[in-house]
Automatic annotation (TrEMBL), chain A:
InterPro entries, per database record: ABC-2_transport_permease, ABC2_TM, ABC2_TM_bact-type, ABC_2_transport
Organism encoding this protein: Desulfomonile tiedjei
Cross-referenced PANTHER family: INNER MEMBRANE TRANSPORT PERMEASE YADH, INNER MEMBRANE TRANSPORT PERMEASE YADH-RELATED
Pfam families hit by this protein: ABC2_membrane (PF01061)
Keywords of the record: Cell membrane, Membrane, Transmembrane, Transmembrane helix, Transport
Transmembrane segments: 24-45, 57-78, 117-136, 142-162, 169-189, 222-243
Protein name: Transport permease protein
TrEMBL record, chain B:
Species this chain originates from: Desulfomonile tiedjei
Protein name per the record: ATP-binding cassette domain-containing protein
GO molecular function, one term: ATP hydrolysis activity
Residues of the ABC transporter domain: 2-230
PROSITE patterns xref list: ABC_TRANSPORTER_1, ABC_TRANSPORTER_2
Length: 248, 277
């Protein structure tokens, strides 16, 4: 039986993921940031915040789903790829194997998506318990998949361009962390100062947050969906190109 | 099997490979000998599609490595200098992933056969992180053989191994050679190059400074070395083309001398004035 060319890359990541899951440290690291935010903003500050249409916890859960799917899809791919390329040299096995760059890209992105979906799944489970009006809508599901795909692809890009492992943390601090806070995860983007709003609209997580909170497809939701698709394609193409042109 | 012409590769201002040309015949073991930084690993990276040259031509089995790397990847196996096994996977899983990547048919039988070749079949379900350095090196060789490659590249296969494990690795390479594969091996172990290679290329500062059989290389500089210690305590070496000439040199010396056969390190020292370390 022949398997798709991306499958061994995906399988390798899944076997490693399975081993990591057995260790309690992995679950803890995947959950720690969203749980802290949930307790601090949702159960702590959130009790005194009233949103326009809903309670704050129901507002917050989709944001945390977007944020944790972003960080897990992105960080695990960027970090693993960077380490495998620069230190463990196991990425070189993929470059020397007779598989196209697109297959390597698909395998890495799918593996990143699984990690993002796993973390998001934990938040969704918490949401069902704590947020009475939280709904798992088809739009949330689609946005979640796109969010995982685009940030896993961005993770490949970062993993390929960083020159040291420390650079990965720098990218994280400059792009991912601010995005987590200013893209409508914890408060509506209308509350952000006017001059910063154009920047916020450029951030992919902003659009993931918009789609995840909607229950029906309206024109602005559709625009955000298209933006997510375009970002996913852009990062995928750039990542694939970086793998194809890889040279030590 | 391998045809290289005018190959050049820079890293910034460092010229790692300089206008290098050579050919390697099919079914032979070719050794690249040189000190650290001579360009051996860069040349292996260029041949195994891991690095792209700045200029020059590079053909393996009539496939252009630069224009058609996928064709070359299908026929090659690589044992890298640095252990790049997945440490958190078992030996079997490492080989299974590799077999899938290289579309190996009858992968289960081939994995078993390769693991038996390197005496690791009994340890197949153990994590690689629990293996010793020698076992990991043997597993790297098994992995490279899994796709039944026409050409095998071994970059310093014995580096960091104790003499006993080095001998085991050398035995495995001899068995591979019997299969009629082309083998390219880089090493800075003189004995390894002499005992395993049909032809040896000596690299220094990115350039190929000599290329011949080990016997011819040694014969060209002189087959005997007379060594003595000078009054200043320095090692003095005289190269002789015959045993008789060596005996005359020894007789004329006014101190104790040792006569020994020349080796590839003597060739290297003669050509570059440096030692291989």
């Amino acid at each position: 039986m022949t398997v798709p060319a991306f499958y061994p890359i995906f399988l390798r990541e899944m076997l490693l993921f399975k081993r990591k899951l057995i260790r309690i440290g992995y679950l803890f690291s995947a959950m720690v940031a969203p749980v802290i935010y949930l307790v601090t903003f949702g159960l702590g500050l959130g009790r005194s915040v009233q949103m326009k249409d809903t309670d704050y916890l129901t507002y917050l859960i989709p944001g945390l789903v977007a944020m944790s799917s972003m960080t897990n899809s992105y960080t695990w791919v960027a970090s693993a790829l960077n380490l495998n390329r620069l230190y463990f040299k196991s990425f070189q096995i993929l470059i020397q194997a007779p598989v196209p760059a697109s297959a390597v890209m698909i395998g890495e992105v799918l593996a990143g998506m699984v990690k993002g979906l796993f973390a998001a799944g934990l938040i969704i489970a918490v949401g069902f318990v704590l947020a009475p009006h939280f709904l798992l809508t088809p739009l949330l599901g689609i946005a979640l998949l796109l969010n995982c795909a685009l940030f896993a692809s961005l993770g490949v890009v970062t993993g390929m361009i960083t020159k040291t492992h420390e650079d990965t943390a720098t990218y994280n601090n400059f792009f991912i962390l601010p995005m987590a806070f200013f893209s409508g995860t914890f408060f509506p983007i209308e509350k952000i100062p006017e001059m910063l709003r154009p920047v916020v609209w450029l951030l992919p997580l902003t659009h993931a947050n918009i789609v995840m909170r909607r229950h029906s497809l309206e024109w602005d939701t559709a625009v955000s969906l298209v933006v997510l698709v375009l970002y996913a394609i852009l990062f995928f193409v750039v990542g694939e190109r970086l793998i194809r042109n890889y040279s030590e | 099997m391998i045809r290289i012409r005018g190959l050049t590769k820079h890293y910034g201002k460092i010229q790692a490979v300089q206008n290098l040309s050579l050919t390697v015949d099919a079914g032979t073991v070719f050794g690249l000998l040189g000190p650290n930084g001579a360009g051996k690993t860069t040349l292996i990276k260029l041949m195994t599609t891991l690095a792209k040259p700045d200029s020059g031509e590079l053909f393996i089995d009539e496939h252009d490595v630069i224009k058609d790397p996928l064709a070359v990847k299908k026929i090659m196996g690589v044992v890298p200098q640095e252990n790049n096994l997945e440490r958190e996977l078992t030996a079997y899983e490492n080989l299974l992933i590799y077999a899938m990547l290289h579309r190996v048919s009858n992968s289960q039988e081939k994995i078993a056969s390769c693991l038996r070749l390197v005496d690791l079949w009994e340890r197949r379900d153990e994590l690689v992180s629990k293996f010793s350095g020698g076992m990991q090196r043997r597993l790297l060789i098994a992995r490279a053989l899994l796709s039944d490659p026409k050409i095998l590249f071994l970059d310093e296969p014995s580096i960091g191994l104790d003499p006993q494990i080095r001998r085991q690795v050398a035995d495995i390479i001899r068995r591979i050679r019997i299969d009629g594969r082309t083998v390219v091996i880089t090493t800075h172990y003189i004995e390894e190059a002499e005992s395993l290679c049909d032809r040896v290329g000596i690299l220094a500062k990115g350039s190929l400074i000599a290329l011949d059989t080990p016997e011819n290389l040694k014969a060209n500089i002189g087959q005997y070395i007379v060594e003595s210690i000078s009054a200043e305590g320095k090692l003095v070496q005289s190269i002789c083309h015959s045993r008789e000439q060596a005996n005359i040199v020894a007789r004329d010396a006014d101190c104790q001398v040792v006569i020994r056969k020349s080796n590839l390190e003597d060739v290297f020292i003669k050509l570059t004035g440096e030692r291989i370390e």
